Amino acid sequence: MSTSSRYPFTAIVGQDDLRLALLLNAVSPAVGGVLVRGEKGTAKSTAVRALAALLPPVRTVEGCRFSCDPAAPAPGCPDGPHPADGPGGERAARMVELPVGASEDRLVGALDIERALAEGVKAFEPGLLADAHRGILYVDEVNLLHDHLIDLLLDAAAMGASYVEREGVSVRHAARFLLVGTMNPEEGELRPQLLDRFGLTVEVAASREPDQRVEVVRRRLAFEDDPAAFAGRWAGEEAGLRERVAAARALLPQVRLGDGALRRIAAVCAAFEVDGMRGDLVMARTATALAAWAGRTEVAVEDVRRAALLALPHRRRRNPFDAPGLDEEKLDEVLRDAAADDPEDEPPTPPEGQAPENPDGGDDDGPGPDGGGGGRPDPGDGAGDGSGGLPPQRTEDSGAPAPEDAPEALTGAEPGESGGGTPRPASAEQQAVAAGEPFRTKVLSVPGLGAGAAGRRSRARTEHGRTTGATRPEGALTKLHLTATVRAAAPHQRARGRSGRGLVVRRDDLRQATREGREGNLVLFVVDASGSMAARKRMGAVKGAVLSLLLDAYQRRDKVGLVTFRGREAEVALPPTSSVDAAAARLQALPTGGRTPLAAGLLKAHDVLRVERLRDATRRPLLVVVTDGRATGGLEPVALAARAARLHAAEATASVVVDCETGPVRLGLAGELARELRGTAVTLDELRAEALTGLVKDVTDHPRARRAA
Predict the structure, then answer these.
(1) Burial (CB count within 10 angstroms: exposed 0-12, middle 13-18, buried 19+), residue 282
(2) Could you report the per-residue pLDDT of 442-458, keeping only the tens digit for each?
């Protein structure tokens, strides 16, 4: 991408946290990259692409596919060895994008196993990690990448090298890059272990000010109309910022991180109960980079505070349903306490009401592209001092929103009645009940052997797992089954004129290893929110049980959906999504009351699963119905519910009915529903891991499911 076709970095206004975090990584790549969380259309991609133009040019060895530096070529470069101070050229720093659907070979590179076996040659085709060496690697929607790809990516970023090994043939090359990942939290969260591997995190959102949004459109249209002319108007600011990045890089080794700053960093991490030591290290590197960016050789208290706001929010999560965030009042209190222990240090808190400054050294008067802001500073306004300010982050709203489509007024039967009754105001029925304490559940799995996305729930054919057999490769060979390959080639050695110790292998001899691992499933919850649940004080326990199953689904990489039924109808409270956080938020806000249209809930679930099978036929569903089994409202509600259940049974949908019935007298209606579904019924108490025995066997081995598998 040419420089003139990129939106200028200095033209982006707003998103101060995002721009500052990117620039700090440009100054000091050791900070560890940036994870950008936020909605689409907020200048995330625009800012990353624009940053590449600010990085200094890269000198490389001529003809080296791995971008070795002529002054210090990598000794183990696959294209080497390179002579020291050999011929070299200069190119712009690259910005390489990793697609969500990329394969492992596309990321790390591919070895030609056929040539390795037949000729003993390490024929290696570099991947995206090699392309991104000494540049930027940008991963859009990083939360949608498979976990094993994220692990490879973050390992390379941490070690500065990439290793590729196939059946004993290995290649190593340097892979040092600035890692930037973006994600929309509504589409699913990253695991805390992976979140911790990103150095900094920022939250971004589009401006809600009409004037700024107008300016977004105006400037974006001006850029699209004539990119070269638009970039030319910002060339001066771009050159100035580029020089400032280079100056900060040169100053960085001279910056002193004193004992007082180190004590403050340690005090902050301890006060916020940050696990491990990576948070302390990232804070130290970030504070040092902030000082260099401001042109100072001593780390100040303000640098420590800003570093904490960037480096710690994503390290504060204690469970998957916690929103990243940092209590700024507590942060200031910790810094004040640390200052009291070290009276020679400067005061820890900045002046009240101090306006944030822009990391690129200018004031902003309008938004930029993609909702992120983009206005040119007016020379008459006066410029900022360029110290690289960091406005306070708003992180408390980063969780998934509560449902907005809940009806404002409903009438229904009195809680506990089986039909009829005097209507009552919906306010008495709709009050949401707090969820009970979540607990560890036993695994529920889908029968048979699937072939869906990698996960941790049900058995499936996957790229990673234990080897179970061999087959002829349909396309490029990715996982060699060495024994089967040798066995296929051995009978033909004399006919092929073999001489010596080598094995003559041809492409027809190669065998692909088939492996068995675990897949993620679609777990669809169908939750009874009728008056009978509220009347018997069950809803708190029910929500606690569903929340526990949601936590289990998060850990097993499932998609989840939520259907609720109450009153006269059922609704899809949450369409199938990878965001377990969103499901938990909808569950917490779930109201109760009215009759029990069980048949409507099962039919709505059937419709959801039918659509999802068309979208992704490989992701197998698991239906979890949470109810006491009662069905009221309409003509023959029990018969209608049984008929709806048989629709699921006819499609061999793996089903579990969580029986919420309590009390000394029980009707056993949930058990009858489970029989119609040809699934398994368990009580709330049996759902607990310490009490649940044999459930997986019951779910996966019922006769109908076994025949369908």
Answers:
(1) buried
(2) 778 898 899 888 888 89
**303: enclosing H helix or E strand:** helix 301-311
**Beta pairing, strands 124-125 & 110-111:** antiparallel
Q: How far apart are CA 538 and CA 528, in angstroms?
A: 11
Which pLDDT tens digit goes with each residue over 177-204? 988 988 887 777 777 767 888 899 999 8
Q: Which of 37, 278, 285, 305 is catalytic?
A: 278
- Alpha-carbon gap, residue 680 to 658, rounded angstroms: 9
Q: How many CB atoms lie within 10 A of CB 335?
A: 23
Residue type, 312: L
The two tokens of residue 73 are: 């070529």
If you search the block for the tokens 């001092």, which residue do you land on? 385
Q: What are φ and ψ of residue 622, in 5° steps? A: -130, 115
Q: Which residues pair with 110 in a beta bridge?
A: 125
Contact between 148 and 464 under an 8 Å Cβ cutoff? The reply is: yes
pTM, two decimals, is: 0.67
Phi-psi region at 227: left, alpha or beta (left = phi > 0; alpha = psi -120 to 50): alpha
**Where does residue 268 rank: exposed (0-12), middle (13-18), buried (19+ CB within 10 A)?**
buried
The gap from C-alpha 622 to its chain's centroid, in whole angstroms, comes to 23
Instruction: Note if 317 is an active site residue.
Output: no
Helices (H), 432-538: 482-489, 531-535
